Amino acid sequence: MHRPIRAIAASGFMISASVLSLATILPASSAAATVSGKKTVVTVWSWFIKSTMDKAIAAFEKTHPNVVIRYSYYNYSPQYLTALKAAAASNTLPDIIGLQPGALTQQYRPYLVPLNRLAEKTWGKNWESRLYPVDIKQMTMGNPPGNSGMYIMPQESQVICLWYNTVAFKRLHLTVPTTLPELVHDAKVLSSHGYIPMYQGAAGAWQNENVYLMLADQLAPGLIDKAQYGKASWTSPALVKAMTVWGSLFHDGVFQSGALGDQAYPTGAQLFADGRVGIMALGSWWLQEDRYPPPLPPLVKNMKGFAPFYFPAIEPHGHPSPPVGGVDVGDGLTKAGAKIPAAWQFLASLVDGKGEQASLNDLNDLPAFKFFEPTIPLTAHMKSIYNGFLVKLSHAHNQRFAYPVIENAFDNALAAVAAGTESPLAALKKVQSVTVSTFHS
Amino acid sequence: MPSRALAARRHARRQRPFHHLFVLPALAIFALFVAYPIGWVAYTSLFAVSLHGVSHWAGLGNYRSVLDNPTFWIVVRNMFYWALITIPVQMVIGGLLAWAVEEYTHRSRALFRTLFFVPVITSVVVIAIVWSNIYAPYYGILQQGLSEIGIHFQTALLGSAGTAIFAIIIVNVWEWTGFSMLMYIAGLKTIPVQLLEAARMDGASGINLARFVLVPALSGVNRSLLLLGVIGTLQTFPLVFLMTDGGPDHASEVFGTYIFRHGFVLGQTGYASALSVVVLVIALVMTLLQIRFLGSKFSLKG
Amino acid sequence: MPVLKRGWVKLVLVVLGVIWMIPELYMISISLRSPANAFDPHLIAFPFTLLNYSIVLSQNPLIRYFDNSLIVTVATVVIVLVVASLSAFGISILRLRGSGLVYGLLLVTLMVPLTALVVPLAILLGQLRWINTYEGLIGPYSALGIPFAIVVLKAFFDEFPREIHEAAVLDGCGAWQLFRMVVLPTVRPALGFVAVWQFITSWNEFFLALVVMTRSSMKTLPLAPMEYSGMYMANPGALFAILVIIAVPLILMYIAVQRVFVAGLLEGAIKG
Lengths: 441, 302, 272
Prior knowledge:
- Chain B has helices at about 1-15, 15-20, 25-45, 60-70, 70-105, 110-120, 125-135, 140-150, 165-190, 195-200, 205-215, 220-235, 240-245, 255-265, 270-295; strands spanning about 45-50, 55.
- Chain B is mainly alpha-helical.
- The longest helix of chain B has about 35 residues, at about 70-105.
- Chain C folds into 2 domains: about 1-50, no CATH class; about 60-235 and about 245-270, MetI-like fold.
């Protein structure tokens, strides 16, 4: 029994000297290493799916043989947010970072360069006309007054919507709901046959925001966009009504029980793809499931088992929700990246070039630049879904928030109403007071 | 002899300047990786950032916002739950397991010692993912298993504000009970065999044996586990972070996740720093209380 | 009667032992499932497939992650052993002035949540140019491990007989010789305990690793599931195969050295 102990203790002291010296010999490899051999290295971080990004990188490197792109994939929250924050603190941000417009871009604006001039040089004076209006609007969201810098370039656009499981609906003889009572009814039927009615990953914030935006923009188009800038009250009747409906989705059996503890990704997406869910609030990016590396669940192949629809009418004679959307994922150029011409070239290729083509062919999401299309063969079903999204995108309402503090207060309100700990009005009053104090400090 | 000892002590004292080299490496590492970060946190806790990213002096403003925020008090409540449940439960189950393994097994003793210790050496990343799956509604094995014996849950344990923190506490108890068991096994070894025999001769058994012989003899282990339990409570982070991220609606928020949310997700460095300082002060108070009432020693002896 | 009682206690132990192992069995079970039965709500679901392991091992640099974990962990263990035993000796045997204060500081350090220190640590490591280097993890891991090691070692050192110390000093034995020749050999079990414990904690740490190792070639094993959970969205079994690959080596290592670990604890307890 004594021998191993002695061995550990004795070797410990002997190794210590060597390890300590080893530590000093090891290259102090900093992230600022830009040249490896003769090749220029560009570092990129994002939550953009790795298999697709790798294709975009391969396409770019083929035409730029002297450039090496190093891509680090992170799950968005919390891993990506952690890595970004730490890298900003330690001054080791990569050259290109994936961003969402608004709050996240604003948080890292001090580390980024405006891209207006580079874009003009690459795509000509009228380049903005090739983008979708909702994207253009989002690119400067939250900028200080007088700052028209675009710190984010849209890599892809999206429209958020509801998807339903066509196989389950057919089996249970359900029709796509066009009114709220129909939705509640369908959810009951789905539940009683062992399906998860409408899967909501309410533990995270984004899917909650999306559903609420569908509700709010149906009742009062554009009102929430005024409220987040302090130009309308969060306690306006339409927003309170939307909040009441939001809460009812949890209590009327539309969402699955325990939704507040569930994540949309990966769990919800997996269950939905597996055919065990009736409805889920996702968006145009759901098409990409068809292109994931195999083995794949049968329903997602050519989107055989899925079709999109928009949130049913809340009021008796109302209309379904208008499309909401904007930039899916964008990219920013850091101050370090601005010193490397190849970094912008790669970023531009992700937005309007070979890189973007590779992403579109993976059906990752809708293009940022108009008139770009997937060049792979698609079934008629897929094609009609895709084109439907493109039409909706051109008049989509904004889905993003400009300020993290206000977005967080809003997320808290959604969670509190969902959990039943606060009334819709009381929850929105808190958001209103945070908004007021934010704009008065 | 006393004079010999005195001479030795005097001799030892003479060499003191050189002797301090023994603690120098630890102090240097402490200064660099602990003291400096704490100083930084204390300093930045006095600043706030405006809507458009300009940093400005905030004095004690951040501290006031921290204490005014109702979520902070949910966190404090959760930390109490955590300490008051995990520490005694782990001690009781761990102690009983130790007694059972040491007294009633022979050939399988090493097997049981290892088996209950496996969760302690399993990475928390692994534990969090696996247990999230166990708790999952619709496809998790817990609800399925319970429904087969007639217990049906209306809600998901991790997804309900009323149960989330307790669901994570159960995982923590599962993870760490093996450690308590091992400590008690070591503690049992310190009890002189004669003492146990004498007690048995006097007819002590069951509760009496435990109360009058075992518990006093194991007071060193109890104190050590209490110390480690308080440390573990304040350090709680990865499990909650990976399983609920403090949700739903902040119901399972602990200090670690709450600091993370403000510092990393919301970019409120000043606020997060003030929160950190508050936790540091709590840690300091807890340390002083422990030293005052329990002594500072980590020992397995009664 | 005692035989009967022994039987019951053993039965309870076996049942508890099985319950205790369910999460680990469940992990292995899911890793053996294809997407078709990945969501089966039972502990075991047939048929088994080893496909996930071949997918995971062919697509990921897990070996590289393993090497990184090993380098960081071994170096941390060595540094912690050296630095902590020196300090515990100074505090406990030499009874240096200010020892009480130093010891108090260490106890506070043990209670500081890591989240509170991560941002300044990142700034510091950036200034040292230690991001994406082994030192970047070895340094903070050592700093966070040393306090506990000192607390444990001090408890052992405190039991070192004062008379031997005094006799050694009178015989002209300097502090270094006393440490090296007399004290250290008697606390070997404690060193074994500290080494194994430090190995486990460093090997499993993920939060600092997430912050410090941003380059794929430098990542440690606990980061693998997070990095690949997005990639295996359509196939949960593959993610669980990664979990098994992470968990099993350490469990095997523990089984191999558990005698050292338990012996350290037991011997310390008996002597202490």
